[in-house]
What does this fold into?
Amino acid sequence: MRIVPFIITAFSTILLIVIFNTRWLVPAPLGILLSPQHGVWQNAEPADADFNAILRFDGLKATTQVYIDDRLVPHVFAENDEDAFFVQGYLHAKFRLWQMDFQVRAAGGRLCEVLGATSGTTDLLNAADRYFRRLGMVYAAERSLSLMESDPVTKPVISAYTAGINAYISGLTKSSMPIEYKLMGYKPEPWTNLNTALFLKYMSYDLASFESDFEYSAARNAFSKVIFDKLYPLVQDSADPVVAKGTVFDQPANKPMPPATVDSLYLTFNPDSMSFPVVPQKPDRDNGSNNWAVSGSKTKSHYPILCNDPHLGLNLPSLWFEMQINTPGFNVYGASFPCAPGVIIGFNDSCAFGVTNGGRDVRDYYTITFKDDTKKQYRYNGEWKDTDFRIERIKIKGEADFLDTVAYTVFGPVIFDEKYNNRNKDGKNYAVRWKAHDASNELKTFYELDRSKNYLDYVRASGNLHTPGQNIVFAAKNGDIALRAQGEFPAKWKRQGDFIMPGTDSTYMWQGMIPMSENPQMFNPARGFVSSANQVPADTSYPYYLGAAYPPYRGLIINRELSAMQDITPSDMMRLQTSNYNIFAEFMVPLLLKAVKKPVSGQAAKYWELLKSWKYNNDPDEKGATVFAVVYDSLKAVIWKDELAPLQKYLVPSESTLLEGLLKDSAFVFLDNVNTSEKETLEDDVLLALEKAMPVLVAADRENKLEWWKFKDTRVTHLTRIPELSRLHLNNGGSSYSVNATKATHGPSWRMIVHLAPETEAYGIYPGGQSGNPGSKFYDDFVDHWAEGKYYSLWVMTPQDFKNDRIVAKMSFSR
It folds into this structure.
């Protein structure tokens, strides 16, 4: 009978061996993950982890000292620039390597290499990798890298940074590998300069690729021009531009003019064509920021204060890495991007600088006519022009490589055709013209901003920024404040690029770029402040077409508050930067309450009373904020859905369109449901919206989630979306209409306030932690304070501080 236990034992042993050495349960072999010597246990960092180190690398020229403080912020003291950027690359990799790797793989269309063709229900091949390849992300990065490497200033910077990253990678062992590599079953590869260029293009994608060309084209073909212009107007009455209204602009000698065929080929609607390709993914429409600077004439100290809070996705590891870099040439402190050298938002001994997104449409589509199915030639300017081809080889984990042939034209890559995401039966081909495809050297912008000493330095540094266009704010200790809507923007005629354009000749191509000297800008304005919050850059007197649908409300409340404030202190700026006041609700709620003349009865009466008593603050415990959000979402559907239903993919008109339409006309034409015989009023629509909102409100109430923080449910998610590596259910306020523009997974990714007094006083925080290791106490230690609206004092070290008690470790880098 001994044979039976033996068989059971042998079978169990074999089964365990198979389980621990295959990827049945997780992407990496379970045995490797659980190995005491090399597995995930090795990523548990002791609370008193020792970061002291003496490191030697052949590529260094001199000795660089790094002092790490009690928040794990490194203060780098180097004897030359190249060593400083080598060390920055090493530190970025030490604390954020997997994040850097993953972001660059996403940008370069290489997620399938490590995740496979699908991840859950997500089609990674077509919705991510293939899309980014066809968009031309790698092509764009290669062109920009060529410019960076030909520049004698940025070539040594990017090369030193890459060398520092690789110095860290070369010292990795199985046990010290970041946990995500172990969980996903792959290893890092050497870093390249192209990776940094790819990351910068990824930021261009995030900030300068939102467009609605297909949606607008479908709407144009569905509605008359009168109705279309009401749904998607060009002018917002409520707009308070970045550059103050009434600013006088010089008129260009060659103002962009529409072609003679614009009415027949471009603006005429075609009701038989309302189906267009669906763009697989788009950046968040709310990717933006707030920034402002107040002059000494408005501050208590009589010195300027600069503030900035970029609004981006809330992720772990965080997008930002805080640090100080000190060399004989500059001394800068602020938020850096793991993947790129330098400080992006910060301050130095003389000035401070910050950015908000410019929001311009710099991505347009053109229809391409090929001679035949081979696509070797396409029609352009009356002749057949040879097509260029780029073969994109996409590696897929566990499968054969996928080869995708992408045609390139004078407009750019043909992103949508019969082989990829083209729902049209007419077989049209769509090429994309994107400003980010042009060679540019954004790295030089921040290299020079980090060293800027005065306004002229700031202007010179800003001039290097082509894409993504940004509103760059500046303040200096000499009292100057400034803001420039900086970028290289296409000079367009009215409505150019809002719809798909004909691509058979050069008629509809961009007619050049707006001279940078003609970009909207302010320098020491009489009102005593400059500000931007992604609103329209200038009023209608600006001679170039700026596009439509800019968010007006944060800019409106910031300008209102700054205009009224005097004797401003950094504490005042903290209160404004974390303000939850909803200015959109200030205008909309009274309209809704006034419209409903009938008593609201039954179960809905409770929620209606909450809305009536609400004071427009999206504070964490406010229930009225939840009622407004749910009722307003329902109201949008009630008002717009009947008109937009014929469109397979539609763009909901902006909040300002609805609000301003109601303010101008109580019988707003879209209040009436086209599918009913009755003529609905605003009261009818509001009551119907309340009725449709009831199931959501009642369910939230029953589950004790009616308080705004619970309903909004802000979370900072790990890039893998693994809940255990994320921070969920944060107790905080804010809304997309508040200065504190916090949503569920999106919001202020770095808050910074710099008081440019003789002794600089600076504060900052971001929703994460300095370490990318989930096993470290520094992984998410800033999150709770960020949610509470608190700040850390930003400590700029000097040589006299080397023995300060805040220093917890010292790293020495030398040859």
Remarks:
- Residues 81-107 form the longest helix (27 residues).
- The radius of gyration is 28 Å.
- The first strand starts at residue 53 and ends at 56.
